[in-house]
Design brief:
Elements (H helix, E strand, L loop, with lengths): L13 H4 L1 H9 L7 E5 L8 E7 L2 E7 L5 E5 L13 E3 L3 E2 L6 E2 L5 E3 L18 E7 L2 E5 L7 H4 L3 H8 L6 E11 L3 H8 L5 H4 L1 H6 L7 E5 L2 E7 L19 E7 L3 E6 L3 E11 L2 E11 L5 H28 L22 H15 L1
Antiparallel strand pairs: 1-10, 2-3, 2-5, 3-4, 4-9, 6-7, 7-8, 9-10, 11-17, 12-13, 13-14, 14-15, 15-16, 16-17
Helix pairs in contact: 5-8
């Protein structure tokens, strides 16, 4: 609970609209926080790899001989050619340019005519690695080699998520939904991180899923933890098996800055992850998860309902804010920070802004 009675104002518009500040974010905030790469189901077997982009860098995660996931910059240490594309499987990582060959663990193994190079230190030539962690099957990376582990960043989240989603070890992506938004990524994350707007704008969510009177958001390390109860059973828009522990609970874990686990009543897991493109554009990826990734009619209907209601409503909201932030008529107003917290308070935005300022200043 926040006991601070001082006024807290929204961030200045430049933090959302300035291309220069966006580039500064890449070298500070985005390069020193835990960012989502992929789900482990993309690389189930030894030698499986998955290429992706983060912060303007091309990377790939690969499963090694010992089963460990490692992430490398997708660049050969010879003359900088890209090593792999998309996804696939390999016994060795071979550069298409000159066939320099690396072990799955990143060490240089061979290359044409390398024996002719005098005083070559092969052991010193390795693919450059990025810090990687598996969080319940979700693979995250951090460009900061000295970064603390995710359990230190997000204390208690690993345990709580497993408690709220009993089938978590069996879950795989059933579907991914790509949502382009014409706004700064922080605008979208902030909208996700308060429910002050929910009863006004999200009728299906507020009346057919949750009970807004029980809604609250509290920081848990660098996580914003949303908690509430489901609405009356007869008001729910889908069936819920009440025999499962926490079946009547709704919770979200926003792992700052750009990923969220969302658990709908009925222990149904879905995720958000944000991909910033520039100061004015981002993509939100929504993942829906089922046992072994198999089609589940209840989950599919909820995903369809979510896209048609909450997602569509949020797109209109964040894109309107994106336009408004560019207006000369905008002056940042005070946040509604209620010491009692609750659904009609923006204390969660106060925490996001503090974390953002700290990351940018560092």
């Amino acid at each position: 609970m926040n006991s601070n009675t001082d006024l807290h104002f929204a961030l200045e518009a430049k933090y959302y609209t300035s291309p220069d500040l966006f580039e500064k974010e890449r070298s500070s905030l985005q390069s020193k926080t835990w960012l989502f790469a992929c789900h482990e189901s993309e690389i189930p077997n030894e030698g499986d790899y998955y290429a992706f982009e983060l912060c303007g860098e091309n990377l790939f995660v690969i499963r090694g001989k010992n089963g460990q996931e490692r992430t490398f910059y997708n660049v050969c240490q010879h003359r900088a050619h890209q090593l792999v594309k998309s996804k696939g499987n390999c016994r060795l990582i071979i550069c298409p340019y000159h066939s320099w060959t690396y072990e799955l663990e990143g060490k240089l193994r061979s290359g044409p005519n390398l024996n002719a190079v005098q005083n070559l230190d092969r052991d010193g030539i390795k693919l450059q690695q990025v810090k990687t962690e598996n969080f319940h099957g979700f693979i995250f990376v951090n460009f900061d080699a000295n970064a603390s582990g995710m359990d230190e960043w997000f204390p208690g989240v690993r345990e709580s998520l497993a408690e709220y989603v009993p089938d978590l070890p069996l879950l795989k992506p059933m579907q991914w939904i790509e949502i382009p938004e014409k706004c700064n990524w922080k605008t979208s994350v902030e909208n996700h991180s308060e429910c002050y707007h929910c009863q006004i704008n999200h009728k299906a969510f507020s009346e057919g899923v949750i009970d807004p009177s029980t809604y609250d958001i509290q920081p848990q390390g660098y996580c914003l933890r949303h908690t509430t109860q489901m609405n009356k059973f007869e008001a729910m828009t889908y069936d819920v098996d009440l025999s499962i522990p926490h079946a009547t609970d709704y919770t979200t874990f926003l792992l700052w800055p750009m990923f969220a686990f969302q658990v709908y009543p009925g222990n149904m897991l879905n995720t958000y992850h944000w991909r910033p493109h520039d100061a004015d554009h981002c993509t939100v990826w929504r993942g829906w998860f089922s046992i072994n990734g198999e089609f589940d009619e209840v989950i599919d209907k909820l995903a369809v309902q979510d896209r048609a209601t909450t997602v569509a409503e949020d797109i209109r909201l964040v894109e309107s804010v994106g336009r408004g932030l560019k207006s000369r008529g905008y002056k940042p107003g005070p946040l509604v920070v209620d010491p009692a917290c609750g659904v009609n308070s923006e204390h969660s935005i106060m925490h996001l802004h503090r974390w953002f300022r700290e990351a940018i200043e560092l």
